[in-house]
Design goal:
27% of the residues lie in helices and 24% in strands. With 239 residues, it is an alpha/beta fold. A six-stranded mixed beta sheet has the order 10-7-6-13-12-11. A five-stranded mixed beta sheet has the order 1-2-5-3-4, sandwiched between helices. It has a two-stranded antiparallel sheet with strand order 8-9. Bound molecules: flavin-adenine dinucleotide. This is Beta-lactamase hydrolase-like protein phosphatase-like domain-containing protein.
Length: 239
């Protein structure tokens, strides 16, 4: 197998770039559909094109869809498009791009639409539990999650943050001086969360340290073994 595979659940997985020779392996692994998120011609176009892939998939009896996405311009529309495809295509489905990250982020965007709570499992009555819960997906939260996953790739980590955008604040001083583009300081949160971590798009409303739990804005509880708190601080003037 020449590609990296990440199984999100029984029905959906993402992978790095696949080749025609990988399709029989994908079929043998039980997948019924393939989605290509990598635009034809990207990076010089040395990878197999969508038309060739579509023909090869058809020959093997795999469903195929082409949903190209530029990694730096992911939007809710990509999530909506993926939802529509998933409603139609036989499962399990394997989506791929160059590294797998873009496909993962589109899946996250798809999960945020209409049913954001379900995406995090927080809407279920069942209590969600993680080894490590990180509150705040700013520079601190993302960095600590990445660092932990480097050392413990299988750690079950959740990052709780309601913001759909990530702001790189240190660059704002340069923006103020007129020497940095403010647009470059904002990126979709989904594109920065490490693929092995679960993003819970909610705010924490209460800490319950005696019970190793936090309460979310939607009222749901999340249990943890270790809690890392990095929501930064807010200025509230004189109170
Ligand atoms: C103009 C300016 C210039 C700066 N320059 C520098 C610099 O040069 N060098 C430097 O080191 N630092 C600088 N800083 C400080 C900078 O803010 C921090 O370095 C860095 O952004 C802090 O990251 P953070 O993750 O702690 O906080 P943030 O990036 O603010 O992230 C906090 C996250 O927590 C989330 N959050 C908040 N409340 C909750 C809640 N209840 N539940 C869940 N999530 C929540 C927020 O949505 C946010 O995404 C600057 C700041 C400013 C404003």
């Amino acid at each position: 197998m020449n590609f990296n595979l990440f199984k999100h659940n029984d029905l959906f997985s993402t992978a790095s770039q696949i080749g025609l020779e990988d399709l029989p392996i994908i079929l043998a692994a039980g997948y019924k559909s393939v989605i290509c998120n990598r635009p034809d011609g990207e990076d010089g176009g040395h990878h197999v094109g969508s038309k060739e892939l579509a023909a090869a998939c058809e020959a093997l009896g795999l469903a195929f869809s082409y949903l190209p996405a530029d990694a730096t311009h992911l939007s809710k529309e990509h999530g909506t498009a993926l939802r529509l495809l998933l409603a139609d295509m036989p499962a399990p489905v394997l989506a791929f791009c160059r590294t797998g990250n873009r496909s993962t982020n589109i899946f996250r965007l798809a999960n945020l639409i209409d049913t954001p709570i379900q995406a995090a499992g927080a809407g279920n009555d069942k209590l969600k539990q993680y080894e490590i819960v990180i509150v705040g997906g700013g520079s601190a939260g993302i960095t600590v999650a990445s660092s932990l996953l480097k050392r413990a790739p299988n750690a079950q980590i959740a990052i709780v943050d309601p913001s759909s955008q990530h702001y790189y604040q240190p660059a704002w001083t340069l923006v103020g001086r007129g020497i940095f583009d403010s647009k470059k300081t904002v990126r979709p949160m989904a594109s920065l969360i490490p693929s092995a971590a679960q993003w819970i798009p909610q705010a924490v409303s209460e800490f319950l340290p005696d019970h190793n739990r936090i309460r979310l804005d939607n009222g749901c509880l999340i249990a943890y073994q270790q809690l890392i708190v990095c929501p930064a601080c807010g200025l509230h003037g004189r109170r």
